């Protein structure tokens, strides 16, 4: 039965497919994606690379990391736009099963809610250092409340916010960067040795990919509002490429110029009020998506585990209030190590979903039937043990395998293991469903396509 569209629209289609009439232009979605990639987090990653790598090595680290991110983002984004579902709901059929998708939802919700609090704490401390007239907890409450209100009203409110904050951030940050670099020779910065401890290319690539891999996994949350797979490809290539190269490489130069990895402090402290505005626009345009995707993951997990359908708006308010409170108390910063550990679990999730949706494809007929009616597919398996084994294997490979890039190792191991075992299992399942081979002469002739002799009864 088709969902109640007005009610689902008010809840931003948290648990149902986004209908065609509710989709947006690719530019509107691309601005938000670019806002995620071109954040202060990207500045910090680039500054760390510049502090510990040559410009050339940093360029290749950003290139390899960006290619990995674009492959993950495009694959998951296409699944999202085709089915119109968020990552955690998509996972019910794409690899993890009904109950297994709750684990995916909890991973996304806990990780992104935590990063919402961490970034809100960074915002509060920065505003306190720059403005000084109010304690940090006041700024934490103000920033957390503002972002919660934006996320509360969903995709359209975040799109309108992005149209304001993204151009403002680029203009303000660009001015601050030019002001910081104008006393340095770009040629010297591009050829200078790293001022800090040397980082390997593999470590740099892992840093680039790991900084945004969780954002790549939540891509269906965003691309379910796109209109076509082509839109997903365009917005991903443009936003990830520009965000990683323009922001990332600029931050590399800043790291060389300041001989420090604290590029955030460099920009804000040297720019006064301008730095304050840069910090504010940088936090808002990524933190609303942290909170939004966190609420989608928790709504899915609650329905699966508790059998209760929670409203996305109510969940957003609760998560926003908790994250804001923890950042105001200054506690949330102690969780960064835990959140980083959770991030290691993210790449195998992408590997399993991509392998199921594009290689094994047992979920595709189910999706095809449901898509025609604009409803969720019928409930399938509750648990798929293969996905949990691949998830654990991917995490182990990313954690303990020495050679290579941990993020790539974990994703590839989960992807290859699920694809190999899944294809064999699907082939065996098709064989079991096949009609048993007949034994009569007529059946053998029927299989060969020949007509039986006139003197031989056809059912002999």
TrEMBL record:
Source species taxonomy: Bacteria, Bacillati, Actinomycetota, Actinomycetes, Kitasatosporales
Cellular compartment(s): Membrane
UniProt protein name: Cytosine permease
Similarity comment text for this entry: Belongs to the purine-cytosine permease (2.A.39) family.
Transmembrane annotation, as ranges: 58-81, 93-116, 136-155, 162-178, 198-217, 237-257, 263-284, 314-332, 338-360, 381-401, 407-426
Swiss-Prot/TrEMBL keywords: Membrane, Transmembrane, Transmembrane helix
Pfam families in the cross-refs: Transp_cyt_pur (PF02133)
PANTHER family assigned: CYTOSINE PERMEASE, CYTOSINE TRANSPORTER CODB
Keyword set includes Membrane: yes
Topology in the lipid bilayer: Multi-pass membrane protein
InterPro entries, alphabetized: CodB (IPR030191), Pur-cyt_permease (IPR001248)
């Amino acid at each position: 039965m088709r969902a109640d569209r007005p009610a689902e629209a008010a809840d931003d289609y948290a648990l149902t497919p986004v209908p065609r009439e509710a989709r947006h232009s690719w530019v509107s979605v691309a601005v938000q994606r670019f806002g995620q990639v071109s954040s202060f987090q990207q500045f910090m990653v680039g500054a760390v690379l510049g502090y510990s790598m040559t410009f050339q090595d940093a360029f290749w680290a950003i290139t390899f990391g960006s290619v990995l991110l674009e492959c993950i983002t495009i694959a998951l984004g296409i699944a999202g736009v085709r089915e119109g579902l968020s990552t955690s709901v998509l996972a019910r059929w794409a690899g993890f099963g009904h109950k297994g998708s709750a684990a995916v939802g909890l991973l996304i919700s806990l990780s992104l809610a935590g990063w919402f609090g961490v970034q809100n704490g960074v915002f509060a401390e920065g505003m306190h250092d720059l403005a000084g007239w109010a304690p940090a907890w006041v700024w934490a409450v103000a920033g957390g409340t503002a972002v919660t209100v934006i996320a509360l009203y969903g995709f359209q409110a975040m799109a309108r916010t992005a149209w304001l904050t993204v151009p403002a951030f680029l203009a303000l940050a660009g001015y601050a960067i030019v002001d910081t670099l104008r006393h340095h020779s770009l040629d010297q910065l591009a050829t200078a040795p790293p001022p800090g401890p040397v980082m390997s290319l593999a470590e740099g690539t892992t840093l680039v990919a790991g900084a945004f891999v969780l954002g790549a996994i939540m891509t269906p949350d965003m691309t379910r509002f796109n209109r076509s797979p082509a839109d997903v490809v365009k917005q991903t290539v443009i936003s990830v490429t520009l965000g990683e190269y323009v922001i990332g490489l600029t931050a590399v130069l800043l790291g060389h110029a300041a001989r420090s990895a604290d590029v955030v402090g460099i920009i804000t402290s040297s720019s006064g009020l301008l730095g304050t505005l840069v910090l504010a626009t940088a936090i808002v345009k990524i933190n609303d998506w942290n909170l939004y995707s966190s609420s989608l993951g928790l709504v899915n997990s609650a329905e699966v585990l508790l059998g209760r359908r929670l409203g996305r708006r109510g969940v957003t308010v609760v998560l926003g209030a908790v994250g804001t409170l923890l950042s105001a108390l200054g506690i949330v910063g102690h969780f960064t190590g835990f959140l980083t550990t959770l991030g290691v679990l993210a790449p195998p999730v992408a590997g399993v979903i991509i392998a199921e949706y594009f290689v094994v494809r047992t979920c595709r007929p189910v999706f095809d039937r449901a898509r025609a009616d604009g409803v969720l597919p019928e409930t399938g398996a509750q648990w798929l043990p293969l996905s949990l084994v691949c998830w654990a294997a991917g995490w182990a490979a990313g954690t303990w395998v020495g050679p290579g890039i941990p993020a790539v190792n974990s994703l590839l191991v989960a992807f290859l293991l699920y694809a190999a075992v899944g294809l064999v299992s699907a082939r065996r399942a098709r064989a079991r469903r096949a009609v048993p081979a007949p034994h009569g002469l007529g059946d053998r002739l029927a299989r060969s396509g020949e007509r039986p002799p006139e003197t031989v009864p056809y059912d002999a």
